[in-house]
Amino acid sequence: MSSIIHGAGAATALSTFNPVDSKKLTNLSVRSQRYIVAGSEASKKKSFGSALTVRHSQKLIPNAVATKEADTSTSTGHELLLFEALQEGLEEEMDRDANVCVMGEDVGHYGGSYKVTKGLADKFGDLRVLDTPICENAFTGMAIGAAMTGLRPVIEGMNMGFLLLAFNQISNNCGMLHYTSGGQFTIPVVIRGPGGVGRQLGAEHSQRLESYFQSIPGIQMVACSTPYNAKGLMKAAIRSENPVILFEHVLLYNLKEKIPDEDYICNLEEAEMVRPGEHITILTYSRMRYHVMQAAKTLVNKGYDPEVIDIRSLKPFDLHTIGNSVKKTHRVLIVEECMRTGGIGASLTAAINENFHDYLDAPVMCLSSQDVPTPYAGTLEEWTVVQPAQIVTAVEQLCQ
Amino acid sequence: MATAFAPTKLTATLPLHGSQENRLVLPIRLAPHSSFLGSTRSLTLHSSRRLNHAHATRRSPPVVGVQEVVKEKKSINSLLITKEEGLVLYEDMILGRSFEDMCAQMYYRGKMFGFVHLYNGQEAVSTGFIKLLTKSDSVVSTYRDHVHALSKGVSARAVMSELFGKVTGCCRGQGGSMHMFSKEHNMLGGFAFIGEGIPVATGAAFSSKYRRDVLKQDCEDVTVAFFGDGTCNNGQFYECLNMAALWKLPIIFVVENNLWAIGMSHLRATSDPEIWKKGPAFGMPGVHVDGMDVLKVREVAKEAVTRARRGEGPTLVECETYRFRGHSLADPDELRDAAEKAKYAARDPIAALKKYLIENKLVKEAELKSIEKKIDELVEEAVEFADASPQPGRSQLLENVFADPKGFGIGPDGRYRCEDPKFTEGTAQV
Fold first, then answer.
1. Cβ of residue A220 closer than 8 Å to a chain B Cβ
2. What global pTM score does this model have?
């Protein structure tokens, strides 16, 4: 299969892969066959691993290769860091729709604690980029009330962990009000912020809230991992009529990638094929994608051919992409940064077992963070999250 | 109509938006029988010390508490309302009362279930405020929201159907007693947890301000947030007072202080029971008004709403009121003293308004009777309508969870789950 050829150049930290972004639903069922064929064509036409531009109207040809450096000569686009990509997406949406506004602590004059909103207050004013007092529950509720009355707020949690204080509003109002009001009020908010285990930030600043929020009915959750999908998901989330929680990761803000110049969005409900393969499906999201790709390098050298999928949509799961992969490889490894108990991996394991049990040759294995409060000490912190060596071991175990 | 309310002797009664001078708050002496007349528990004396710290000379907003804004309505020449206004107010209060009484009947007959919280006795607050609002102003309430919805203009039929859980209810039967929403009438709910609605109200007010200042539209809409005494010990209340005052949002915070949470007396739960005083601490006027008197409430409301419309910011209004029934229909109401209940029953706001209208020769008895009859028929008809309406079908189960049903995601077959024919039947796996 053509995809194996691409496998050799597989595992650098940053993929320039552009995911399928077809707006037409009919393409979805055709998608999976399409990419395998198209991948080989793409490799013949362009030099190895060029980033293909993405347009709404075209059916996308995903280039499944993770390459070293993007071929800059043939492709247009501009290079930037992930936080700049988020900022660009946010700014473009604010330019496009005057109802889009930002609320959060230090988003205005300070430019955001991770500089995602840098410069926006100067451009759009203090009311559109609102510096709130430190009261997560109330300002999240305020954003929800504003959304009900016509605005489209983007709420920033300075650290995702702080949104625990806003749980009342997120669960009861954000998730439920569209339903309880019989469909009368929509809540088109985007709740975003950095989460995940950083560099010795301590337990409370290293939280992964995706597992806590996943049961709330009425919300969607997405996790970005590259500048390309960060900008795309930010824009899609802002344009969506549903409340969306966008999970960013503290350690990924400085990733650099070349992204297209023109307007594009990433579908909120789709997963991203990072590296097609034959032997095993590895499902991951956010920072763990990079640990997986690092492990994939080692695995390829050992002769394995892993298929890596960045699930991106944490709620709902893209069972189509995942299912097709399981049907092909028959082995699944989930690598996540969430806690073991009740995490995204746990839900995903259940979903796969429920839907694709017949296709599995081995039990679904899930590598998650330890169920411990993240310790401060560097060595201990390293052992709480999944490391590439563990991924390699797990794959070897599953593929016996 | 003389008030039976012997207030604290706050010697400075100050206009809401007065000027800078004579701002001094003089020491308050609290009589042991207290300003909370109904309560037989005595209020602890507050030290007058505290009040000398008032921000008298300090900063700009001339905010001090106001009591007894409207002392007495004396002669015909200084009547507070016209005949038409009087009839509107009377009809609204009668509607609230009859509707709630009918709710109780229907509950005990098994037509509605769950937690139902009735508003009997507090009608003056709802009518006093909401009848001053336009259709585009917003109202946010709590679980005791039937009458707020009715005053705002939601039809009795829609509310009753909602309580019966029928498709024709204002929220298609999906909300229930505690979640009355109406986009058309800008009734933003109906919240089950206390304090939860206050930030939503703050957001609606923020929207108004945004429309005016950023989108440059002509927007004078205000938001009125209703909540109780128990909520005033909740963090969300304070967080929103801060934000509303900080940004001068067009919002009015109305505390319906009926002295009791469920079985917890306000005095047992609150270190400083005088809620109106908490307004000035945040830089907004705090007003205390007799919530059993619709005309007094209306006067205060006029000031507060005008302030908000002019962009001068929020106001905190504490309405001392009382609920004649238990906290909910499941509450046996054993803790409240019979004497307290009797005292407030004697100050029934509907009876008081009726007396005022007749004594001041604004209306004739017969006109009021015809209103009562009309409302009776309206409520009966609402019940019949609700009875006759269909229950929601299975297909309604999965609708409205998401505004964009693509949020249910992509199924294993590659199609969006909302395209699955079983989805519209309500039986799809989502």
1. yes
2. 0.83
